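Two proteins follow. First one:
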Amino acid sequence: MSEKVKKNKKSGLSLRTIHIWLIITMVVMSGIVVYSTFRLTNTFQRLADAEEQHTELQKAAHELMDASDYLTERVQRFTNNGDQQFLDQYFTEAFESNRREEAIAKMDVDEKTQAALAQLKEAMANSVKLMDQEYYAMKLVIEAKGYTDYPEVLDSVTLSDEDKALSADAKIRRATELVLNDEYYDQKDLIRKDMRESLDEVDSLMNRAKEEELDTLHLELTIVRIIILIQVISILVMVRLTSILGIKPVLKAVDKIKSDSPIPEVGANEFRYLAHAYNKMYSQYKTSLEHLNYKASHDELTGAYNRAGYEILLSGIDLETTYMMLLDVDNFKTINDTYGHETGDQVLVKLVQVLKGVFRDDDCICRLGGDEFVVFMVHSSGMQRRLIEAKIDQINDELENTDDGLPSISISVGIVNGKDASDKESLFERTDAAMYESKKKGKHTFTFVSDDQ
């Protein structure tokens, strides 16, 4: 062999060496990819844990408000009819169920939740303060009814000389006023304000945690892309596999995350596992959020919008294209007294079902409390008097039908065209006046405050 050939052979690259380096590179890169995959799994797990904590903290805040609203409902029912079961239920919630105290304990997680905890404690303090007024109202009813068997804590409540001198009926009216007046609901609004501020703190905490984890996630995804790029450059044979199993799923996942959508469960098994975990977390989050939103804005008994939902709807309506109808069940107290509150509740459920059947899906039905309901008839730019009259007649006809075993009822209605009200606040006042005008007429009727003939 010539010296020239020997020199070229000695200076050339060895396939064995290249193969060894390719294997080493493949092993190293594969190891790094696997490591990054596990880091991604940990990042998603931390996101899932943060979301679970966020849901629990939100639930805790709502639990306190639900408990406060439950106490309000019990005391209002007790002052309304004097039934001692509501008195017992009130004190069972206050001293045995302890949902408010449990909500405070759930919020006390670590130093990061202290701001939200402080707002929730303020809501608790206002709730406890409100109980003093409720105790006083209950003591008025107890003395008016002559009850002797009641919780000992009410022994410490002393009525003013003026209230002591009231007649039994006057004491009942006084008690009802105490739990229904503006001062009482101003205090309730303070509790809701504190709860909303607590929820805002919880949301802020969760957003910061998500931003931190998402930054980590993006960093890890960037590392994975760089490694994949190196593998593509180093090993051409892996280009297609890497594209199918790695890059494309990751890119799609990032786009889906940015657009707040589930991640397609495609690609490598590891990525499918991550996508499945993320999608499960995403589904649970959406379900929990929808449930909380629904519960917060809908009446539990009838499924109609509650007062909170009514306030939201009222703030967003177009006065020029909306009719507001205020409905009140005639002689509803008599139904409760004669047939019992369970039947009364069934009557309210039936009323909402009838309303939903008569009005359009776009129209909104709200229960303001007791047997008082509001219907927003939206997108009604033209005069709708005859249509509304027909609907009210149909409603009363269906409510009078006793085939379902429920007593016959009727409604009195006040109707105002939104364009006849100066603003949204006066809309309710005018509609309320129209409804009471219907009551004066003998009930089972309706009154238009103003309309264009």
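Second one, unrelated to the first:
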Amino acid sequence: MPRQKAVNPFPFTDSNKRYHTYTYYLSHKFGGKVSRISLNGGFTCPNLDGTKGRGGCIYCSPGGSGEFGGNPDKRIREQFDEVAGKMAQKWETARHIAYFQAHSNTYAPVTRLRTLYEQALDCPGVVGLAIATRPDCLPDDVCALLGELAARTELLVELGLQSVHDETGRRINRCHTWEDFLEGYQKLRAYGVPVGVHIIDGLPGEDERMMVETACELAKLDLQLVKIHLLHVLEGTPLAESWRRGEVELLNREAYVKIVCDQLERLPVRFVIGRLTGDGAPDTLLGPLWSRKKLCVLNEIDKELVRRDSWQGKYCEG
């Protein structure tokens, strides 16, 4: 007899995915495909300019994770047209989220922020904004602006946390604490701003228990999205030097898949999962090299959830 296909028990899906994908969320909200257009507002970071630290987090690239975005020397509309043109070669869509990605995108006077955000919203087909920043870059006037934007457009503010463990934060030169994160998160939610969080698996000194604990702590919050990244070693970072000296052990694919599935099982079904791995620029990625096969990693996560007969939120208490 032919083998019967396993029934997917996860409610927020129209595919084989057993977690709440960002694609599913956007397509159901806007009635079709929505692309993200990565823009660069030319920001810096308090962990670079000496306000909090210098050199940035040990894994952060010189471009502040904005290598796949626009050219900061160009105006927002010019960046948008160039990046959207490249995206159109992959798929055709008339709707876009303008994504301020590189460095800390609330780290500027509110007048400048308003100008840049409004320029992005004026680009053709833009239905919302995503803004990546640090939890310690959210003064009251900026939160008020973000609250105003959230009341009239699709908005997501993505906070870089990486881990709830402050010993890890010190190890990676994060220069903010778990309490700092909670303060920033609470301010945003008080202004009605949807919040996403970035975490990284495989950080130096962390074991599986610590990584799963990060997911468990996030599950207690009123979040709208979580991104799970794999630690990449990129050329030109302090992490690269530590890795070359043999001080950093990277996760293999099997371990990463297991940890991600453990985390998904403990995240509420309402949390949108923005990503389950990361993109390291091919010309600067030193490891893990298996991460280049992104589709294979995602397929292994899908297969592991099926093997476990599991899904996002299976062991979530809330």
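SUMMARY FIELD: The chain is about 35% helix and 15% strand. The first strand starts at residue 34 and ends at 39.
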